[in-house]
Amino acid sequence: MDLKGEAMRILRRAAKGAAATAFHYTGAEDLLASIQRRAVGGRRVLILSYHRVVADFDLEATRSLPTLNIAQDTFRKHLETLAEHYDVVALDRALEVLEGKAPAPRDVAVVTFDDGYRDVYHHAFPVMRAMKVPGIVYVPSAFTGTNRRIAHDRLWSALVRMKDRRLGPVSVGASGRFESMLIDAWEGAETPNKVLENLISNNPTPVLYDLAAALEDRLGLSENDGPEGQLPMSWEMLREMGSQGIETGAHTAEHTVLTNQPLDEARREIAQCKAVLEKGVGRPVRHFAYCNGWYSAGVAQALKAEGFVSAATTEDLPNLREVDPFALKRKVLWENSSAGILGVYSKAVAACTMNDTLGTLALTRPVLGARPTYFGTSSGRSQKSATAAHG
Length: 391
Known about the structure:
Blueprint: H1 3-26, H2 28-40, E1 45-50, E2 52-54, H3 57-61, E3 69-71, H4 72-85, E4 87-88, H5 91-98, E5 108-114, H6 118-131, E6 135-139, H7 151-164, H8 176-186, H9 192-202, H10 205-219, H11 235-243, E7 246-250, H12 263-281, E8 287-289, H13 297-305, E9 310-312, E10 331-332, H14 347-354, H15 357-360
Parallel strand pairs: 1-5, 1-10, 2-3, 4-5, 5-6, 6-7, 8-9
């Protein structure tokens, strides 16, 4: 165990919990919310992003990437806290508020999910249906109705197995480009999570699937190893959710980080994803979420050409009036996003997190997703344009 890292996490959590408690119960949180409204030019539009909603967080944390998970009970508390401060609406309604086309008596919020995990149907959907909360689930089309697992889930399992066996990037037996990839990713990385982050950041998505297959072969794993809830939803599940106000959005075909692909390949992924999803759910698919939150001007233009009307990042920033609908800001949440001083759910922390109290005070730093448009080929990473997205 990384004792130093764990100690720092506990200290940060305690500091965050203490600050949130002070702001929440003294009324300072509400004052800061008023300041935010003036800054954005009207009612706030908050877009939340979740991944998996699980029955038992502690169990899932031992067998899947913890930062993608939130317990069903914690998720329910999030929605209850959210409803105290926001009207939870469909994404189309939120876009109308941002564009000044619809009045909003209160601040509005949108609940979104990335990756199309099956336990969103089993554990999030019942809560949202009971509370009459709408939402959208962004789905990678090639996985729906299969038992395939996304590359980051497969790689995390393999990296944890390597760590448990004390196998380094060389001793695992990977050869050629895979050995070099692992050595680079392991450089300065203390945890499997950080190694995974490095791999995703620096390699095209198809290569990540090849690496996952190679590691699984060497470690005695299978692509289908993993908890049942980590598998994709079926078309029937998506259609049922759609009938209850939780629509389907697009998340590429193969969960591809499009800014790491040549633009022509990105265009093909976008078109394929939209066509497959619309056929599967029997409804128009008009909204998109960028994998890894990374986007570019070229990718945004490709989305517009295919008839999408919005695309969401994972940039934890306010959505300003007249915001570019292809660079919507979202706050990514998981179990520990609302953990207080004692490491359990804290309403004060949840409320301050959703109200972006600490962000308003510049106590947190968002990770930006804008990247250059990549005009290269599959065999090279030469980027002919350094034009920032939407700039």
